[in-house]
Write a structure and sequence with these properties.
By secondary structure, the protein is α/β, with parallel strands linked by helices. It is built from 15 helices and 16 strands. The radius of gyration is 21 Å and the shape is globular.
Length: 369
Amino acid sequence: MSSKRNDLERRLIARIEREGPITFRDFMQAALYDPDYGYYNTERVKIGPQGDYYTSSNVHPAFGALLARVFVQQWKELGLYPSHQLTIVEIGAGTGRLACDVLNALRDQHPEAFQEVDYVIVESSPQMCRRECELLAGFESRVHWRTLEELGRPPMEGTFFSNELIDALPVHRVRFERSGIEEQYVSIAAGRLALSWAQPSTLELVNYLGRAGVKPAEGQIVEINLDAIEWLSKVSRALGRGFLITVDYGDLSPLLWAPDRRYGTLRSFYNHRLVDSPLERIGEQDMTASVNFTALLEYGPDFGLETLSYERQVAFLVRMGLIDMIAESAGTNPSRQELNEWLALKNLFVPGGVSDNFRVLIQKKIGSP
């Protein structure tokens, strides 16, 4: 660990001295979302070559174009075409790059839908909001920003979606011992933040484990994302009728909690490098955990959400016609720029590429649960 404390670490130490050890979940919440020093609320570039990680929307605008096609299909499936507006709600839009690609594709490839589109962004980071506003300045008549609570008055009809949002929500960490489960906390040792273990902070962790249907090995650490369940509940309240598309890095419980993942899936990144400890550079490095899609599938019906499909992102891209889109755009004598774009697109398909560990979950809500 660095010998130098930063402002956020000093703030957390003062909090722990007043209140006692905090759950790892509360530490991660502060590290990512503290209003002054949290990772997502600072000016530092997070996404792309100058940042800490890439997303599918950084690879090629075809990802946004394919989503635009999906949104139009769902608009028609809901019976809202052509006389009702096409409502798209993106939760956690990051830099706004994906929103820009979707809107460009609607304008150029689906003009009848573009004339009716109402693109809503739900964004908690003021810094990200500024970047989104700058990038989407040409679409100001089509885009506006709201909270999930505002969207629920009254509930909306349309498509809600997120791309790499759930993996950025704070997680509880638990481990299995003969005497039961223990939860990880952040405490103080020798004047610095340190990790420790104690009794679970809430019975919701035990309930979650019961619904997961898998019992990890003794001593194994797993992440539990209760915030994802609360998020699912909020989305359901805001969505009266329509679809929820979740694109993220993750898998099902049996694979995430397999014996070879003894220490869980929590990872920290700084300048595209994996960092050993979440206690390094607090607020300056990204922190993420793989999404447990079993939980989203299991809890979805509690909130009136029916599962339509769950698949690898590669399979979703192929099924929705990305290969056909590429073929349609290919010329007989491609330019150097076109060749470079095709090479970039390969990263969405090849083993080990951007899509390899991503999943796409589509759920539908037909009314109040």
